[in-house]
Amino acid sequence: MSDVRPEGIEDYTGPAGGWDALKATAEALASQQVVIKGSLTLLKSNQPDGFDCPGCAWPDPKHTSSFEFCENGAKAVTWESTAKRVGPEFFENHSVSELWTWTDYELEGQGRLTHPLVYDSERDRYVPIAWDEAFALVGAQLRQLPSPDMAEFYTSGRASNEAAFLYQLFVRAYGTNNFPDCSNLCHEATSVGLPESIGVGKATVVLEDFDQCDAIFSFGHNPGTNHPRMMTTLYNASRRGVPIIVFNPLKERSLEKFAAPQNPVEMVTLSSTPIASAYHQVKSGGDVAALKGIMKRVAELDDENMRAGGNGYIDWDFIDEHTSGFDAFLADLSKTSWESITKASGLTKQAIASVADVYVRSEKVIVCYGMGITQHQNGTSNVQHLANLLLMRGNIGKPGAGICPLRGHSNVQGDRTVGITEIPGKALLDGIERAFGFRPKSDKGHNAIEAIEAIARGRSKALICLGGNLAVAMSDPDMVFAGMRKLELAVHLSTKLNRSHLLLAKHSLILPVLGRTDIDIQENGRQAVTVEDSMCMVHASKGFLTPPSEYLRSEPAIIAGIAEATLGDKYDIDWRGMVSDYDRIRDKIEKVFPDFSDFNERVRHPGGFHLDIPASRREWKTSNGKAQFIIADGLSEDTRLSIPGIITLTTVRSHDQYNTTIYGLNDRYRGVFGRRDVLFMNPDDLLERGLSDGSRIDIVAVPDEGDDLSSQRVLSGFIAVEYQIARGTAAGYYPEMNSLVAFGHYDKKSGTPSYKATPVTIRAST
Ligand SMILES: Nc1nc2c(c(=O)[nH]1)N[C@H]1C(S)=C(S)[C@@H](COP(=O)(O)OP(=O)(O)OC[C@H]3O[C@@H](n4cnc5c(=O)[nH]c(N)nc54)[C@H](O)[C@@H]3O)O[C@H]1N2
Ligand SMILES: Nc1nc2c(c(=O)[nH]1)N[C@H]1C(S)=C(S)[C@@H](COP(=O)(O)OP(=O)(O)OC[C@H]3O[C@@H](n4cnc5c(=O)[nH]c(N)nc54)[C@H](O)[C@@H]3O)O[C@H]1N2
Ligand SMILES: [Mo]
């Protein structure tokens, strides 16, 4: 390590959590000027009669009213309940051309939007517009498109079940299934992969299973930052002596050690609890190889044990009764060489065998995973190999065992459940027909990749976004930005200003919405919405702060306004009636989706209710009624990653960020303060290139199929930071790195962009 580190780069030696987390929370409150109000807000979060924290989708213990400490939940809540406002005066003072030169951090940092706005091209400014005029404008534009399939309807996963349900109803009544969705960029590999494997695309565990499991495998997620409330669960498991085996190219502090702010002993003595019992720094993109290795070893151990007269380690009874495809799967494992496994995973045979040892000794195992698994060209295969691993020892459908995808946005899972999908199944179409008397069309619509392609090629002319910051979240911003500027209509339902709003269409509107924390009053009184967490619990969420401005409307109310202006009385849907009392929306949800029986009654129970997951009772809703072992050809989809000299670039979230929202410039646990222009690199990779900690570098993307070879994708002047990261892997921040990710670089099965494995070369900056 060089003697002089660049400003803001340090070694962070403390545990995750602890006093620094308390301090950071206080700072977050102060920076948004919500000191007193803010602490009250936090006390209400995730309580039975409170609101659902918009921070993450990790569930809460049932019936508790104890306030669970969570630094990043605090940031998410204070960011929304900020005292800062961005109103008409602001837009009067700043043209859109000027705002374009601001950073994303500066744009969102201005505060909550207060008025509906329309772009005035003569003055290059957003100016206020009355709600009815806004709806009329959107309606007229949508009606005059030659085909409804020329419009795209994006959803970001903060939308409530009620908003998402009305939205998909409106869009289907309008006549398209074009539903690009943030889940296409996130857990789509789960939604596509798991149903093929086990018949359902969701978690098969509930929180209580973590109290009973005897091992936890954690693949590709960073809970101390992204699912902070999960730390309580991991902490308790670790203190119970449960082995926690981590697969992650980066050493993430929260997976190493954690000090629980509620534990007085740890706080006073500055001690902490180790989390990972073993930490395997797999190469980015090497998970299928690592998983095949573990399973190959389990098969070897099984064989040895059976020869010695034992019963083996594979759950043969379960496999016979509940699965198909196992023989072919075993054959694939035996033909995969250890040499190829260790090369592609970057792990030794010994390390992999040690995992198999723990696995065969454990009777109840949970696998948790995040974006390190899904955001790959082989994301679907990654997910299916996690399922294979569990099925091999009957670890699905019994207490204390199962699969646990860590969802992203707080209601991304619920949005899907209530109908946000570009591939409407028969049950959904039947349900809508039953509840509303019309049958929407069944053709497949666009996912996010297809929507952007259609926009870029000029085939789609209108984009409506229910939240999010699609342009910045996608790969290849140059292509996405250019496409969006060709639109005829762009409408953003948002809480805060972001770059997507500045990509001007012929008609551009920003429609400000109430957030999760805001009181929502409709004709029949104060309303609650509902959300579904990562473990399929549906519960109510009620805002309680005075909204930032009297002009805001709720998401359901805005969707209803657009629907009325677009559809008139087509199909005779009572939009206004439903919005006057969200119980009426929930009655319709129940009519469309029988799983929501007695919805209004059940959601009023403290803690809500659990949606049925057939796989958790060993009922497999697959094509042949059995769980499937699914084989992946080879170990990796991208041959460029094995060319000597190529580094695999993965992208991660900092501790001070929520997706494209940057709360601050620190990434405390990784020792980065006040900057984001860094690339975390392995010391040997630095040495090999004649670089050292702190070197100025350029990151150059290896051209992708279909790339224009006359222009290179390159990010210049970044700072190399020596880090404990797998050899051959480097990590930078999302979204700064997105311009290096080629648009065509995605999982062909699920459409999930390969944000976690871009082949790059690194050179010293000149
Ligand atoms: N505070 C906060 N909370 C959030 C979010 C946020 O931005 N901020 N975002 C929300 C959303 S939408 C989501 S989807 C989730 C995201 O939650 P995570 O899935 O935790 O998100 P990432 O930051 O993408 O972290 C991915 C992790 O995978 C590791 N990794 C990278 N490549 C690989 C690989 O090839 N294999 C393996 N095994 N590991 C790999 C990285 O080192 C990193 O630790 O969090 C949600 N919660
Ligand atoms: N390189 C790289 N790219 C990635 C990822 C990665 O790991 N690496 N992760 C991907 C993932 S997992 C995801 S989920 C996407 C995220 O993509 P998005 O969901 O599109 O992005 P966000 O940054 O969450 O959206 C932030 C905006 O949402 C609006 N907003 C906030 N709260 C509300 C609300 O309550 N209602 C409404 N209507 N609007 C609201 C605000 O205006 C804010 O500016 O990014 C993806 N992009
Ligand atoms: Mo996500």
Task: Write up what this structure looks like.
- The protein is α/β, with parallel strands linked by helices and 766 residues long.
- The protein folds into four domains: 16-80, no CATH class; 88-180 and 425-597, Rossmann fold (3-Layer(aba) Sandwich); 188-405, Dimethylsulfoxide Reductase, domain 2 (3-Layer(aba) Sandwich), CATH 3.40.228.10; 639-764, Beta Barrel (Barwin-like endoglucanases), CATH 2.40.40.20.
- It is 35% helix and 16% strand.
- It has a six-stranded mixed β-sheet, sandwiched between helices. Strands 27-29-28-31-24-30 form a six-stranded mixed β-sheet. A five-stranded parallel β-sheet has the order 11-8-7-13-14.
- A hairpin with a 4-residue loop joins strand 4 and strand 5.
- Helix 7 (131-143) packs across helix 27 and helix 15 (287-307) packs parallel to helix 21.
- Mean pLDDT is 93; it is low at 63-68.
- It binds ligand MGD (2 copies) and molybdenum atom.
- The site of one ligand MGD has 32 residues, from helix 11, helix 20, strand 24 and strand 25.
Feature tags:
766 residues; alpha/beta; Rossmann fold; Dimethylsulfoxide Reductase, domain 2; 4 domains; six-stranded mixed sheet; 31 helices; globular; binds ligand MGD; binds molybdenum atom
Give the SSE map.
Blueprint: E1 16-17, H1 18-31, H2 35-44, H3 71-80, E2 85-86, H4 88-93, H5 96-100, H6 104-108, E3 112-113, E4 117-120, E5 125-128, H7 131-143, E6 151-155, H8 161-174, H9 188-198, H10 209-212, E7 215-219, H11 223-226, H12 230-239, E8 244-247, H13 253-256, E9 257-259, H14 264-269, E10 273-274, E11 278-280, H15 287-307, H16 316-322, E12 323-324, H17 326-335, H18 338-345, H19 349-361, E13 365-369, H20 371-374, H21 379-392, E14 402-405, H22 412-417, H23 426-436, H24 448-456, E15 462-466, H25 470-473, H26 477-484, E16 489-494, E17 507-512, E18 521-522, E19 525-526, E20 529-532, E21 537-541, H27 555-567, H28 575-580, H29 582-592, H30 599-602, E22 609-610, E23 627-628, E24 647-652, E25 657-658, E26 661-662, E27 678-681, H31 683-688, E28 696-701, E29 714-722, E30 729-733, E31 758-764
Parallel strand pairs: 1-9, 2-3, 6-15, 7-8, 7-13, 8-11, 12-23, 13-14, 15-16, 16-17, 24-30, 27-29
Antiparallel strand pairs: 4-5, 4-17, 9-10, 18-19, 20-21, 21-22, 24-31, 25-26, 28-29, 28-31
Helix pairs in contact: 1-3, 7-27, 8-27, 9-21, 15-18, 15-19, 15-21, 24-26
The structure holds ligand MGD (2 copies) and molybdenum atom.
